[in-house]
Amino acid sequence: MVNKLSLKIGMLFFFVILIIEGLLYFILYMNLAGERIEEIINNLLARGNTHSEVLEDNFEATTLEHVGLMESASEFVVIITDEAGKILVHSDPVQSEMTEVIERTNYDSIPSEGVVIEERWKDRQFIATDSPITINKEHRGHVFMFAHTNQVKRVLDHLSNQFLFIGIITVVLTIITIFILSRFITLPLMKIKRATEQLSEGNHFIGLHTERRDELGELAQAITSLSNDLDRLKNERNEFLASISHELRTPLTYMKGYADIVYSQALTDADLKEYISIIREETENLSILIKHLFELAKMDQHSFPIRREKVFLKQLVTSIVDLITPVLEKKDVALFVRCPNHISCYIDPNRFQQVLLNILDNANKYSVKGGEIKLEVKDSDRYIEIIVRDQGEGIPKTDLPYVFDRLYRVEKSRSRKNGGSGLGLAIAKEIVEAHDGIIQIYSEQDVGTKVIIKVPKGEVIEECTFNR
Ligand SMILES: Nc1ncnc2c1ncn2[C@@H]1O[C@H](COP(=O)(O)OP(=O)(O)OP(=O)(O)O)[C@@H](O)[C@H]1O
Ligand SMILES: [Mg+2]
């Protein structure tokens, strides 16, 4: 429960906001309280000053009594003394704290106007002011005003209650807002969590809403595309397994069939030799297939060594032509090569031989008898380009995007007429890309196919491991 994101976010927000609000309310409260206390004190002082002004105009017993009478009806207390501190009039009973204040007053130094003489409202019963009575520059007496500190405390209590009320409302509103906000953030996360659970259970149609234009929307989009990728990978894996089992089963069926015949029947020497040679051929095919699969697996693990060196393309092409010519001759396919002597680049010659042999082998396999293949090598400042064109059957448009996929063959029956397993172009692509190059294929059915390889010339001499 405590680990729930909504709760964590909510609590974090709540405490942060609570601290901010508390601080702001505290400052506001202190300011307001200070203002209210000052207002009460000033009011008391102004009252005392008014009385002293009246008495300065008319310092008589009746006026003195009148002032005392007036304040006896109010919540304030007035005590009027003579210039030496002797009490002349008081509006209410004189309390000990009042006597103490009066006695404490220094009657030798007379303030020119009223002063606050007691403002410790927290500790005392009364706050007090002193307004001197001066007639014709002669010091005649003092008007002491007292206000009960209960008054101040009452005002502050009222203020505190108001703040408490507002504070509670604010906290409630904050909690509601945070609850809504955190749900707003966490609900989509919960949905995403459920979707990923579905994903791990193997259900790829997770139906996440990806319309949101914020980070959560992006996350939902990323997960949706991940689920599509997973789905694609799953299909690819199934197809791969189906193809691979077909590729393995066919030679094994042949081998077993012929081995059975050899084992169980009395054969002539010629038949025996033929059957054994078929078994050998199938074994050869099988080991090539396994070698290719193993190479691809190593490429996937980035542990496929690429040993680059300076290679003159002319030399490489010549050695490849020597290797492929006997195969081409069988089908009467002509190979035209154009490769300037000077072109060189830093590549792994063995790997490139493998690539070009496969491309030429494809061109030959899918060419008609007596067809033509052209191999051209060109260079620019940064790239060398190797182009192989044939006039064979071509590749249908719908298949073209997939020919670099592992085990992909246009011919779905995977007939053994042309013998390929559909790994050649996949390996070629990996090798070319390991050289930071690109491989492209263009084809038109019944017109022919063109394969273009572009590799940077580079200056890398050291040995490096396959690295995509
Ligand atoms: N020049 C081409 N003309 C027509 N189809 C081609 C050509 N090159 C490739 N293809 C098609 O692309 C598919 C994949 O080619 P790839 O070289 O990967 O496999 P393969 O030649 O069938 O088998 P492998 O190369 O493993 O022996 C081929 O099966 C073929 O259908
Ligand atoms: Mg091939």
Offer a few descriptive terms.
single chain, 468 residues, alpha+beta, Beta-Lactamase, Helix Hairpins, Heat Shock Protein 90, 3 domains, five-stranded antiparallel sheet, five-stranded mixed sheet, 9 helices, 14 strands, binds adenosine-5'-triphosphate, binds magnesium ion, nucleotide-binding, two-component regulatory system, EC 2.7.13.3, membrane, cell membrane
How would you characterize this protein structure?
With 468 residues, the protein is of the alpha+beta class. The protein folds into 3 domains: 151 residues, PAS domain (Beta-Lactamase), CATH 3.30.450.20; 85 residues, Signal transduction histidine kinase, dimerisation/phosphotransfer (DHp) domain (Helix Hairpins, Orthogonal Bundle), CATH 1.10.287.130; 161 residues, 2-Layer Sandwich (Heat Shock Protein 90). The protein is built from 9 helices and 14 strands. The strands form 4 sheets. A 5-stranded antiparallel beta sheet has the order 2-1-5-4-3, with helices on both faces. Strands 8-10-11-13-12 form a 5-stranded mixed beta sheet. The two termini are 45 Å apart. About 1% of the residues have low confidence. The site of magnesium ion has 5 residues, from helix 8.
